[in-house]
Amino acid sequence: MTTARIAIAAALAAALALPIAVQAQGNMEKCFGVSKAGKNDCQTASSSCAGTSKKDAQADAWISVPKGTCEKIIGGKLAAS
Q: Over the range 54-79, which residues count as b (16 or more CB within 10 Å of their CB) and which as e?
């Protein structure tokens, strides 16, 4: 395969996968206060990026969960406290 064909195939694959990723994000919500230390999905007030929370159940650290799940998890909150 030539470089051009590889680039075209990669672009096509990304274009086809994008709507699936956007749809999946629409079915997810942030759940605060339930992640294990170092297992958060994004930055917090006290840590710079995903996977850098300092302690278990850190109040401002969150993970993505399917909608409706967070409120069923003990300690789960839909907003940082």
A: eeeebebbbbebeeeebeeeeebbee
> pTM for the whole thing?
0.61
Strand-pairing partners, residue 32, are 62, 77
| 3-state SS class at 20 | helix
The model's confidence at residue 23, banded by pLDDT at 50, 70 and 90, is very low
Query: For the chain, which residues make up each domain, given as ranges?
Result: 3-72
CA 69 to CA 81: how far, in whole Å? 18
d(CA 7, CA 33): 42
Provide the β-strand partners of residue 70: none
34-55 residue pLDDT tens:
999 888 888 777 767 787 888 8
